[in-house]
Each structure stands twice: as structure tokens, then as C-alpha cells.
Amino acid sequence: MTNILVTGASKGIGRSIAEGMQTLGSVFVSGRNEEALKSITAKDYCICDLAQTPEILGDFIEKNNIDILINNAGEYIYGSIEKMTLEEIERIHRTNLIAPAYLISRAVPYMKRNKFGRIINIGSISGVMGEANASLYSSSKAGLLGLTKALALELAEFNITVNTINPGWVDTELGNESIEQSEFTKEEIIDCIPQKRFVAPEEITNLVKYLISNEARGITGQGINLCAGLSVGI
Ligand SMILES: NC(=O)c1ccc[n+]([C@@H]2O[C@H](COP(=O)([O-])OP(=O)(O)OC[C@H]3O[C@@H](n4cnc5c(N)ncnc54)[C@H](OP(=O)(O)O)[C@@H]3O)[C@@H](O)[C@H]2O)c1
Question: Are 63 and 5 in contact (CB under 8 A)?
């Protein structure tokens, strides 16, 4: 039986992915909001603040022999670089980049023994293109792309694939709060998106389903933009 872990499953994209995985294996979820995690159908859940104590989720991964790891949890922060404190710089990178790398390090020994693994990180188009006043978010998400390419090479012989999905604007709490923090209205942002719409969480879920399937076993080391055309120009 395939064991799937989705981080940041309490809401938004992670919740959609966790719900979409139900028929594909045993689903495990994690996040900080216990009530929300309890409301998802899952084999088990793990409460863990990835900025503080990722070891808790690392132990959970080892205990449950996770062979599909979806590193989805993430935090956005808006503001000019001179306003960012050391605590914020560390927190964003801990949650968005250090924790995914650490969780992969805990999942890979079992995947190697089992000669099968699928690792999918949820990056962002802001890590591909850069986003003014979101430099910490951009750098943490760009880091996932380097991690993805190097690990794809390192793990290829073990039948483990590693990919990162880079969403554009997605209609979730994070997506809508990041607009509220910015100097733009939702209408102005939609106007800059070639398809004139936000991506739906279910579109990310469908791509995750494809990437973990046997049909996609040749896709590894890739950053795949799912952004309604945002990355190719205006
Ligand atoms: N929405 C967008 O427009 C957009 C665009 C590009 C990329 N993304 C990426 O997609 C992923 C999911 O975003 P979303 O839009 O679904 O956001 P969301 O609705 O705000 O959900 C974020 C999830 O991450 C978890 N999380 C955040 N910080 C955490 C921490 N320190 N420790 C443990 N869990 C933590 C939250 O857990 P709790 O609620 O339980 O605390 C929640 O489950 C993120 O990596 C985000 O960067 C989103």
C-alpha cells in the first residue's frame, strides 16, 4: 500500500491535494491546526510547526514509511527587504525551504530501500520570476528548484522522482491575503494574468496525481509552472 504525506493539509491547496489522494493510497496529513486536520479523512495526522520543530514530522515520516511526500506547507510575507527582521528571514526559509529539505532527508532512506519514491514540492512562480517586495518568499521558493534538480540526479537510480510545481495566483487564504498585503487590487492582479483568472487548487491536485503516476515516471528534476500563463510575459 502506498503511503502519502501531504504537509500543510489543513486548508487551501494542501487540503485539496489530500482529498484528491484518497483513492491512491493511505493518506497522512500535517499542519498546525489540529481541528482542521481532524476534519480530513486520513489514516493519521501530525501536528507540527515546520518553522520550529520539523523533527516531529521527520519522526512521523520514518514511522509511517512514507513513499510519496508532498511538501506543500508554505508561508508568504510581503514587505520591502529593509523591513524584514532576522526572525522573519529565518522563519520563512525554515518553513519554505529548510523543512522540505529536512523532510526529504527523513523520507529518502525508506524510498531507497523500497526502490520507489515520489517527491513533489509546491514552489511558486515567485521563485521562478522573482516578486518585488516578496524577496524572502521568492528566494525560499527559488531554493526548492535547485534542491529539486540536484536530488533528481542523486536519486534517479533508486526510481525516486523529484519535481516542483510552481503555481501562479491560486484562490486560497494565502493567495487572497497576499493581495490584501500588496498595493494592488484583485482586479488589477487578474488583469495581469494572461488567462484572466486564478488557478483553482484542484488544478494543482490533478498535476500532483499525474506526477505520482507510473505514466509520469520519466519526469524528474523539473519545475513545472501552473500559472495561467503568468510566467511567459504580458
Ligand atoms: N495561493 C497562492 O496563490 C499560491 C501561489 C503559489 C504558491 N503557493 C504555495 O502553495 C502552498 C500552499 O499554499 P496555500 O495557498 O494553500 O496556503 P494556505 O491556504 O495559507 O495554507 C498553507 C498551509 O501551510 C501550512 N503551514 C504554513 N506555515 C506552516 C508552518 N510553519 N508549519 C506547519 N505548517 C505550516 C498551514 O498550516 P496551518 O493552517 O495548520 O497552520 C496550511 O495548511 C504554499 O507552499 C504556497 O507558498 C500558493
Answer: no
